[in-house]
Specification:
Elements lengths: L27 H18 L11 E3 L2 H4 L3 E3 L5 H7 L3 H6 L13 H17 L17 H5 L22 H5 L2 H13 L1 H30 L1
Antiparallel strand pairs: 1-2
Helix pairs in contact: 3-5
Protein name: 60S ribosomal protein L13
Keywords: Ribonucleoprotein, Ribosomal protein
């Protein structure tokens, strides 16, 4: 540390008594036991319900992880509609719904729809009142069948096998196709109006010509 001119000498204090500020973790075994007991108590309070909620299978983000599948936040409204489950009913059956998520591939949507149908087929819905079953509740035989609280197994991620690129795929221009589709969707309304006006133009001209001839005769 250099000094310059007739300034006051620095009185830096570097002894900060760091031993009193060290964060310890001696309660780790006790916290682990408390969390385990809390999970047991929560599972017992759930009764016969599944231990975990049903979530969709989605692809990971970025090029590094997009070959792997993971649990998503919730099923889309389109997936629930195709599986025949309403949004309100899904919330009561342990199915998580995410209204913001969108389906970007047919394959991913089909996997989640099959997952919903398999879950719905295995599900046993007990009536709120034992003697008064309602629509959607399971039959008496299903209620007597042995049950399990384990949810559906998660589908394994099988990457696509390598193959040769076809000539059609080489000639396909994805960027140009997307731009054309976007332009068609954008100008669809204006083109319909223009086509309608063009179809009515001859009749309009003929009608105006008849009006002009009638006015001349007067």
């Amino acid at each position: 540390m250099g000094f310059s001119k007739n300034n006051v000498l620095h009185g830096n204090h570097f002894h900060k008594d760091w031993q009193r500020r060290v964060k310890t973790w001696f309660d780790q075994p006790g916290r682990k036991l408390r969390r385990r007991n809390a999970r047991k108590a929560k599972a017992a309070a759930l009764g016969v319900r599944p231990l975990t909620l049903l979530r969709p299978a989605v692809r990971g983000q970025t090029v590094r992880y997009n070959t792997k599948t993971r649990e998503g936040r919730g099923f889309t409204l389109a997936e629930l509609k195709e599986a025949g489950i309403s949004r309100k009913a899904a919330l009561g059956l342990g199915i998580v719904v995410d209204h913001r998520r969108r389906n970007l591939s047919v394959e991913g949507k089909a996997i989640n729809v099959e997952r919903l149908k398999a879950y719905k087929g295995r599900l046993v819905v007990f009536p709120r009142k034992a003697g008064k079953p309602k629509k959607g509740d399971s039959s008496a035989d299903d209620l007597k069948a042995p049950t399990t609280r384990q949810t559906l197994p998660f589908p394994s991620s099988v990457p696509e096998q390598p193959r040769k690129i076809t000539q059609e795929e080489r000639e396909f221009n994805a960027y140009k196709t997307l731009r054309n589709n976007r332009a068609e969707a954008r100008y669809e309304g204006a083109r319909k109006i223009r086509a309608a006006k063009a179809s009515f133009t001859p009749l309009y001209c003929a009608f105006r010509k008849e009006e002009e001839e009638a006015a001349k005769k007067k």
